[in-house]
Amino acid sequence: MDRVTHKKERKGPNHDTGSSTERRKGVKQDSPRKKKGSLSSRDEVENCKERDSRASKPASVENGRAGEAGRGGRKKPRGTGEKGGADGGKGGERGGKGMRGDGGRGRERGQGAVRGGAGRGRRDEEQVTTVRALARQDIVGQRRGAHGGERGRGGRGGERGDEARGVGGGRPKRDNWGRSNSSARAQTPHSLIQSLETLKKLSGKDPSEVAITLSTDVALQRLLNERVMSWDTVQLVCLVLSKAFLAKDDRSTLRYLAGVVKDSEFLLTILPLHVSSVCSEVDSGGKRQQPQHLDHILFLLSKVFSVFPGSLVNTVSMLATLLQASISRLTALGVDVHPETKRRLEQLQGLVDLSQQKLAEGTLYLDRPAYAPLSTSSDKTGGEEEQDFRDISIYPTYEEFHQDQRPALQVNLTSQRYADTHHYLDTQFRLLREDFVRQLREGIHQLLHSQLGVGGNGNPSKKKQSDDITVFSDTRFVVPVYTHAGLAYTVRFDSRPLKSVRWESSKKLIYGSLVCLSCDNFDSFLFATVSNREPKTLRTGHVQLIFTEDSRCKLTQIQMDQSFLMVETPAYFEAYRYVLEGLQEQKEDELPFQRYIVECCTDVRPPAYLLKTDIYDLSSITDPKHQRRARLFHSLRSEAWPRKEELGLDESQMKALQLALTKELAIIQGPPGTGKTFVGLKIAKAMLTNHNLFKNTPVLVVCYTNHALDQFLEGIHRFLPEGIVRVGGRSNSEVLKPFNLREIFRSSKFKLPKHIRHAYSEVYKQMLQEEQHLHTLITKMQISQRGLLQATVLQRSISPQHWTSLHKPPTRDECGTMDEKAELMMRWLGLESTVFQQRATENVKPQTGDADVTMEEVAMEEDDLLYIAEEADLIQAERIIEDVYDQTDCGDRQKRSEDMEKATRELEGAMLAMNLEDCEIQAEQSEEGWEFQREYSKKMKDSIKRELNNSSTMTEEEERGVLDVWRLHLEDRWRLYRLWASRFRSEVCAEVQESELAYQNAADRLADVQRHKTLCVLSRAKVIGMTTTGAAKFRKVLQEVCPCLVIVEEAAQVLEAHIITTLSQACQHLILIGDHQQLRPSATVYDLARNYNLEVSMFERLVKMEFPYVRLSRQHRMRPDIARLLTPHIYPDLENHSSVLDYESIKGLKESLFFVEHNHLERESKDTKSHQNQHEAMFLVSLCRYLLFQDYKPEQITILTTYTSQLLCLGNLMPAKQFAGVKVLVVDKYQGEENDIVLLSLVRSNAQGKVGFLSIPNRVCVALSRAKKGLYIIGNSTLLGRVKLWSNIFQTLGENGQMGNALTLCCQTHPDRQVQVSCAEDFKQAPDGGCEKPCSYQLDCGHVCTRFCHAYDPEHKKYRCVKKCEKVLCDLGHRCPLECCQTCPGKCSVKVEKTIPVCQHTQLVPCHQDPNVFRCQEPCQKTLQCGHKCNLVCGVPCTSECQVAVTFTHKCGHSQEGTCYLKEQGMVPNCATPCRQLLKCGHKCRGKCHKCHQGRYHIPCSQKCKHLLICSHKCQGTCTPYCPPCGLPCENRCVHRECKNQCTQPCTPCCEPCARQCPHQKCSKLCHQICDCPPCTQPCAKTLVCGHPCIGLCGDKCPDKCLICHHEEVAELFFGTESNPGARYVQLEDCGHIFELTGLDKWMDDHQQAGGEEQMAVKLRECPRCHTPIRQTLRYSAQIKSSLAEIEKVKQTINGRQADIAKQREALKKQWMEREDFLKDLAVDCSYISNRLSSPHLEANDLLILKKQMVFLTSVEKLLETSEQMSTTQGYIFRRKCEEFLSWLVDFHQKFTDQQVSDLENELMRLSLLAILNTCLCRMEEAGGIMFDVDHEFQSIRQVLEKAGPFTKQDEPELTQALNRLTDKLPHAGLGSAGVSRR
After folding, report:
1. Three-state DSSP string of 935-955
2. Is residue 1199 a contact partner of residue 1239, using CB atoms and an 8 Å limit?
3. Are 1804 and 1755 spatial neighbours (Cβ–Cβ below 8 Å)?
4. CA geometry: angle at 1669 spanning 1668 and 1672, to 5°?
5. 383-400 pLDDT, tens per residue?
6. What is the 3-state secondary structure (H, E, C) of 198-239?
7. Which of 997, 1140, 1502, 1540 has a beta carbon 3.0–4.6 Å from 178's, enabling a disulfide?
8. Is the dihedral of CA 702, 687, 692, 593 positive or negative?
């Protein structure tokens, strides 16, 4: 079998290795469009099988026929290849150091050689062999170069190399598409590709199935990474992969699949060798298959290369060259290569050359998706009018934002036909795009112009903001959020300017709205849509966004803390996007119904399916009375139809049914109440009964609103219990719940094809894994912002030196109950006195009685207001399309959410030392005994929040200069903490970015699989129901389902473009049902609606074009009085059905229809620009309450208003307790609805005469046609009467007496009592809905009704008597304390005096209660075991923890108070008495007694040093014998650069030419050298901005002050020379102060400026005014450079010679290694010394400290050796004391100050004497015992040596003599010399 092999193992996937290579000559730059070529059929598969079965002679790349037989022929080419590879590796390493490191020159050489070899004569066998050999060379070079490039990439966005993957133990790294390079995180998934035979079968499947199967099967990845692959296997893999890439809509799946191929051995090694050996196979007899096989390879390469142009530019370039050589060779051998294959090769080569050119220019985005990244300029030339609409960007472009150009628009034709289909589609596309773009474009135009505008006073003019957009400033990314649609981001904007916005009702930032973000005045920008809005979070300035696909690329290139300007347009972009994409993708010859839609032909044909057979069966819709007469008939014969009576229809309904069933495009107009839904359901039922006519394809039902869709589908469900699928928006119907797409997925009846089920399971699991990991990372980010992080969390962000320092505090922690690690960070930041919960302490909190006053808030309990759906909520409800992801296969979402919440809480507890969000800071008594007050605690919490939110952090240079973190001031500690926290967040952020890519990739792939799942369901359905929004979103699925019949309900409300994109080419029948005289489609731009007819629907346009339609003529809803308002004013004729003639009159009111007139003015809402009328709201609320009193149910009443602000006004007046069930809506949201009683508020009433959209007949029609029985309108008739329609309506109302200033109320009980009401106050005359007469109804309890006359509850069954109950409850005569209507209690609860038997106390006990079970509340008189009285009550057990304050006496002699129970338990607190001893440095010790070890070893002095260092910085350390090196960044700089080193490090001299020059002279020296020309003394000839001449000198920077404009500031006397005539001035660049030239020159030249010192200090000159060091002023560069040279010399002296330091360090290392053994068994952490000795940055002072530590360690080592001569007990105690001494010695804060040295020497002397004492004692015991007098001496000596206080020099002589005397009495000479001396 022929095999293609390679010998060198590949180390990792080939990530970005694409640098620009030399461009191929002779190849066109403009690559032609890629054309899909035909792929292999089953014959190709059979050939593969045949080839696998036969045995072929071995053949490799080094073919024997090329002159290289056997292995010997490989040596030379192989060596050449390795050489090229080595060069490539070096090139990669060099490239790796830069921003775009890649394979480098090695790969270029290999490719150049390949091209050269191929170009000099491809037909020559010898040169073909050269091509093969160089190909192998290029592969090796490519690998090495790729690895070098990976090392240089830096790892952003998932671009990690092999070295990054090698980091031990971490989460597996991913490539640029988020695919994990390790399978360790998940179990190996089940494989569908079991063998090559399976792969062969797969090649015959549908491309989508092939792509999905391959992308979710690990077997493919294993196969592609095989290092040995047969010839036929390569062919089969190429065949299957090329078949997969034919899939049209599985974009994300193909992108993932391309990534798998890109990183495989197959592409990088197998395929190049395979291509180079094609000719060998031809010689073996495979001529027929090779051209088609090469075509498969070319197609595969072009697809993969289009996704990863950056990574594969060199690989594909090399393969293209090899393919060219192979094709030339095949042609030479007589093989016929198809021209299409050659053209495809030329196209691929052109793409490679173009990519190389872009890569060289830096414009090629590496490893990005195939779509073009967001650009700042258009690549197209010419205006929009010159472009085909299919080439126009859906999103606004740079030119639209920055150029004042008007788009090319055409009017939507309503009176004539379109020229052609292209004209029609072009018009619809441009109008629709302009509808969502214009407001954003013009708003940004205005914003940019206002930013450039400058007023006459020189100040920027006041910014004007367009009303059409909303601008949100200072928008920043907060945290990513995972959703099924992919990643969303929470952003935070400045909410302060929007404080007045009521987010519940505001239309700002509604779901689906488009926002545009920019940080550079819209030179570049990002687009996103609002994916989630919560009013609560919006008030704090937080909103969730999902970025568009193009903008996601840009996100990885921006800083997440970047501030953006965010602009919002209210257009619902998602609907626009899907429809605009559909219009662009619509092929002109595939648009259905062009004959009517475009050509406007009125001769309507029958549906195509009826031309085959038109036999209908209408028995399903026949009236039951005529069911027997139902028969089959020919529907195209009008005389054959049954009579309308048989079908139960009126005449117009019958015509509508006939039109709908027999015409391929039918329009049915249904005025209000005429039953258009009823007719629509009849039509649907008839067609579904005869579904065999249209081949059982699904019927698509599209409605504008969710409510209408639910109504229609519920009607269908009555006769079709199965086969319905509801897709998209939120449904409130319980009936339709089982038919929602998501519920169907969950159903056990639903079965998926195996490949889809497998793919969904695998991809969903991957997404859940990425979600969990991303959730953890995001949670870490969020938690890090909630409070103070624990030290352990920040460990990786803290340097080892500082980590050790942090754990070596100068003091020990007090006895407490808080977590030690948490306390460490809190104590370091000075927060040890604030805790989160009360805890028992050694300090007693005094009893304060009622000191903490608990204020009871006494307020009237207000009823909750009636919930009124805000317009924002209603809009969102129509926009949101619920996800259809099935989660049953992968666990319960709720459980997963709970687990995540639990994990979050645990993570929060593990990470935070202080949580400032969930906890309140409580006060703990301090050591001095005072308490934090509550206000102080709040201030403390706010202070901590301010510190955490402060943006000032310590620089890394400053951080490196910090040696001891405990010596920092509190301000610097916070700055350092913020640096650590920032570093921690940066690390997490980097992980988040990597995980984001993986999650987004999984989500995109899941969307592809989900689309196939949806397609499976919809293709099996009988009826598919969608809203127009859902139809737009699922447009591509509908195109594949191909519904033959489409019914559009509310078609007159739908934009024409929405209907077009819903239709597929297969649609044969379209039925439009609606009413164009009611609400029209909603356009965002009013100009387009009015002047371009955008608001004209297809329904209305065709009606205006006299297209045949039917209008339903009989209404079944309104009483005749109400119907008269519509006919003839809106509809010319509208008949009343008999059912509406018998409606009863409205109870309690004289009229059932009335218009209440008034002249109260409206108010405008500043936020929404809407209007409200308080008078109308109060009147209608009172009227509604009155109607409820008439015993109407709340569900029978609806309040409508014409403006959204009026909703809020109404809602604030309607308590839920009274009005629950009453609907309150705007008119536009109530179309299609009806109710018995409608109360209508028209709102508009103003002096300007503006009526707004109340002049639009469509809206008036809807408003007046919703009521069935009663309609009550309130408005300003004088204002509305100016509108002709309203004038006619008022005339009709006036003729019937149904209009006036007051409404008449009638009492039902007393008909003679009537009340005229014109305002809300008048309703008080009918307080309970009747009249003011008392009710006086006799109740069952004997009382009478106390209310006024009321119409509701006449039998008083619901009435509750509130008089006092008279029943007796007990034998003592106690009466019931409740009201009459309440149930009497079973037991008497009146309190009476009773004696408690146990204690004989008298207590007030409830009458029914036994005193034996009552808990006595008298104070307890018992005495506790400690002797104190119990402080609890008598009835409870006494406490075991006495809280009485007692005095503790410590060994040191100090006393302090604590709680009694601590003393009883033997828990003695540490002594907190201040030390205050005067240290040897002259400062008082600030420690406590126990922290200073009773004076034996004091804490380091914390006094700030503040000495001025040589670098002009103040010392940042604390009081030490010598100042530590300055850790601040060096501030030396020149015009060319600034020094990046620390102050202590030598500055690198600048070798650029000196910048001092002017027209008169120029310095010829280098920048760091002393200038060879003096400063110029000529005046500056420039003019300042103010118009006055410059006051500076030539060659100097012009001062920013003017002698005339700023005379007092400039001429202020300082040197005394400012008043000299012709004085010139110099401005110091370091501080900005301005001085007169001669005075400043003298100051700079004065060497005695140090203040009378005999010798000038080595330091920089300073500003004479503010003492800022002068470093940058060019005029004094000579003095500056001279001082810097002196400073450099001093630095060298301080730093010492590195060679000497290294030598001494090695010596100390040797000493330390000798000492380590004896320290191993001691409980002392000596890692600090090891770390310091290993540090590469040691200085002379560090070595001095280490030397001293070694000296002390030697002494301690000797002392520990003597412990072996002691008794076991004494030896153990002595070792513990030595360990304590060692802990002081090796402490991180050990600086060997005078005080520390003295304390260590004293303790060492104490230990030495104690060792002698213990040794003597041991020897005496061994000799037979201790005499009494000797024992007395022992005890007296031990008492002195073990005393609590310090061991002083005064104790030393006496103890030394006593020990010498004692050793003389020893029976054996033990110590040799008992004398002890102080070293």
Report:
1. HHHHHHHHHHHHHHHCCCCCC
2. yes
3. yes
4. 110
5. 455 678 999 999 999 888
6. HHHHHCCCCHHHHHHHHHCCHHHHHHHCCCEEEHHHHHHHHH
7. 997
8. negative
